[in-house]
Amino acid sequence: MKFGASLLTWTLPAWTAETGAYAIQQSAVYGFDVLEILLPPSMDFDAPTVKRQLQAANLDVICSLNLPAFAHIPFHPKEALSLIKKALDQTAALEATLLAGVLHGGIGVFSGKPLTAAEEDTLCEVWAEGTDYAQKLGITVAIEPINRYESYVCTSASDVLRIIDRVKSPNLGLHLDTFHMNIEEANFYDPVVTAASHLKHVHMTESDRGMLGEGNVHWNDLFRGLAEVNYAGALVLENFSSSIPGMAEAVSLWRPSKYDAETLAKGSLAFMKEKAAEFGLI
For residues 98 and 171, what is the distance between their CA atoms, to the nearest angstrom? Predict the structure, then answer.
């Protein structure tokens, strides 16, 4: 099992050459195996340079993308597919094999009603073509459900699993995030074992986005499920600290964080490794 840090662990959710280099450096210094790079919707991203930096730091890489409003699939399917293909191209250029993230709709975009059958049909059509493109590049795609306050398209594991069942692409999977699970799922065990081999990526996030193990997430249930399904993906830390200038505004972190980013990363990585060892995952 490999343990990763998200770009957001170290810096704002807006890739630049400078912040990216810093995130790579910090991930290596603090002992992570993987950096998850949140690709910018502009796709202003120098993949060859980043690839060299990752290799020098001895880090593996996972790519993610959160669809922006202009690529909300139910409203803008052509724009969404175009952006998804560009993200897959960047993922391939880094020689990464996974593209994860909020790939069902724009964060914060709502229709004012529940997802309709026609909207779900559109989602399936986009991902049938998107995963075909990804498969040619040797890339697996993992869709992340997020909470009801940020999306109406996919808010639970079952929503994504229904899409996976309809699309029937072998390289389409589920990306779970424990912050969103804490809001939308009945528990932390059932979604994992129900997904089984469809589970390709996990964000490790405490209920308050703080130090792992100090909030409401039922970590033993999560790890019990991961062990039962022989989860082979990475566990990637995605917690936020207000010690990073601008982070509060970027992710609605309105109360001062108890810990700075470095302390959060160090403590949370130790927690992940301890739990993984306890449940026989390492």
Answer: 9
